[in-house]
Structure formats: structure tokens, C-alpha cells
Specification:
Layout: E1 2-5, H1 11-18, E2 30-38, E3 41-48, H2 65-84, H3 89-96, H4 107-120, H5 128-140, E4 149-151, E5 160-163, E6 166-170, E7 177-179, H6 182-190, H7 196-207, H8 211-234, H9 241-255
Antiparallel strand pairs: 1-3, 2-3, 4-7, 5-6
Helix pairs in contact: 2-7, 4-5, 4-8, 6-7, 6-8, 8-9
């Protein structure tokens, strides 16, 4: 069951409209949805059939290597089904609706985010080294991201259900849109904790991509998401200091620690204490 205040955001409407048309067996079946009024408040709800399994959680805590590889192989297969799905009619229109997803859209947009951060952090809140690192990633980025296939765009391990060595469902299609496969590969690999290299290897084998290409695609997407998140935090009049610190720490890990390129098992270089 998912419940949200109608005034919160409209993404649940997107998920409800898409759910009946997604590839069979990909997600939990939608049983009912609607609007419930409680005095002066309005609540949107969606009720789904129970699917066996449990979410592995961010970073796959306590998961061994064999299990992580098996789940990654099943998840990549399911995402491949989503990527090859051909929506039509109203479903296609929904996926094409503008969505401020914070991901990578173009080289120019990423440069613009860096400029915004430089302006917002003119008092030194955003270290110059991090701005330079983001600029370097933007310089290597493609001119434009394609928007040609359906992607989930939030498929971290909190949004999967697993049972034994299999995945049973992919949940939460609120951010689904047209994009590129790498928009999903980034989320799958980045939130695999110590199994990031295993997941990247599974993706590379399944898609016949080079690991270098995958790393670069994931790096530019993480840079775009973090830059967008940090700008959003800094633009608020009541800046959440802890949230800003968390985003800066993540940027430091990405740029100084070279998250997508460092050999696993080596200490992470950082500039933020």
C-alpha cells in the first residue's frame, strides 16, 4: 500500500497509470487506487498484491558474493525486459511527460548546474576542488542523453524484492520515464555496497559493454544527481546543514575518492573531514 498527500507530488499518479501496462511479472499487480478525502485533506492511495520476498536494502548489507551476483543477474534480466518494452498510446505519453528527475540530460545542463553551485557556494561552502572536479566530468560528458527507452530511474536495492537467489519484483515506478539503459545501471551498481564491482561485471557481460564505458556513464549520472541535489539544498532559505554536508561528502567520494575508478579494497581518498 502506498499513500501520499495529494498536495505532496503527482508521481504516484504516474505509477498508477503505468502499473497495468508494464511487462508481466515485472512488478506487483495493482489491485486498487483512488482518492480518499478526510475532512479538508485529500489522500491518493495505491494498493498492490503481495509479492513474496523482501528488499535487500541499500548496499546489500550482510549479502555474500554468490547471492549478490545471482540477484544482479536476475535484476539485469528484468531491467532488460523493461528496456525492450514498447509502450503505446497514453502509456507512452506518460513516460514522455516532463519530469525533474535530477539525472543527466545534457552536457550543457551539467555545466549549468556547476555554475549554479559556484554562485550558491561563493562563500566557500562548495570547495573549489569539487567544482573543478564536476567541471572535468562535464567536459567528458556526452552532448545529450537519449530518451528512447523506458527506464525505472530509481532501481536501487530498496526497490527490489528478492527470495532465495531470485528477484520477485521491482517496485516504485514513480520516476519511470524515457531515458538510456545507463540511467538504471547507475542505480543498480551504485547502491550495491561492497558488491559494486560484481554488479558492474554482470551488467557488462549482459549488455556486452566495456567496464570503462559503464564506469564513465555511471560517473556522469552520479555527478548530475549530486549536483542537482546539492543545488536544491543550498537554494532553500532554511538550509539543512546535515543534508548539505552529506551531499558534499558524497561529492568528495565521487571526485576525490574516484569512486567509479578506484580499485576496491583500497582506502578512499577524501578532502573533507
Amino acid at each position: 500500500m502506498k499513500i501520499i498527500d495529494v498536495d505532496g507530488h503527482s508521481r504516484l499518479n504516474r505509477e498508477i497509470a503505468l502499473a497495468p501496462h508494464l511487462p508481466t511479472g515485472l512488478t506487483a499487480p495493482l489491485l486498487d487506487s483512488g482518492l480518499f478525502r478526510l475532512e479538508t485533506d485529500a489522500i491518493r492511495y495505491a494498493c498492490y498484491a503481495r509479492v513474496p520476498g523482501a528488499a535487500p536494502g541499500m548496499g546489500m548489507p550482510g549479502v555474500d558474493g554468490v547471492t549478490a551476483r545471482s540477484w544482479a543477474e536476475a535484476a539485469v534480466h528484468q531491467l532488460g525486459r523493461l528496456h525492450s518494452w514498447i509502450p503505446s498510446g497514453n502509456t507512452e505519453q506518460i513516460l514522455r511527460e516532463p519530469l525533474d528527475h535530477g539525472g543527466f540530460t545534457s552536457q550543457a545542463a551539467l555545466f549549468a548546474e556547476v555554475e549554479h553551485l559556484a554562485a550558491l557556494g561563493r562563500h566557500g561552502l562548495v570547495p573549489r576542488g569539487l567544482l573543478d572536479g564536476l567541471t572535468a566530468i562535464a567536459e567528458r560528458a556526452p552532448r545529450h542523453a537519449q530518451a528512447t527507452i523506458p527506464v525505472h530511474a530509481d532501481c536501487h536495492w530498496d526497490n527490489w524484492l528478492v527470495r532465495d537467489l531470485s528477484v520477485t519484483a521491482l517496485l516504485d515506478f514513480e520516476w519511470a520515464r524515457f531515458g538510456e539503459p545507463a540511467d538504471d545501471w547507475f542505480f543498480l551498481a551504485r547502491f550495491s555496497g561492497p558488491h559494486t564491482e560484481t554488479v558492474l561485471d554482470v551488467i557488462a557481460q549482459a549488455t556486452k559493454s566495456s567496464l570503462e564505458t559503464l564506469r564513465a556513464e555511471c560517473e556522469v549520472r552520479e555527478a548530475a544527481h549530486l549536483a542537482s541535489d546539492l543545488r536544491g539544498v543550498l537554494e532553500r532559505p532554511d538550509v539543512d546543514a546535515q543534508m548539505a554536508a552529506n551531499r558534499l561528502r558524497s561529492l568528495d567520494e565521487l571526485l576525490v575518492g574516484r569512486y567509479w575508478w578506484r580499485p576496491r579494497g583500497k582506502p578512499v581518498a577524501t578532502s573533507i573531514e
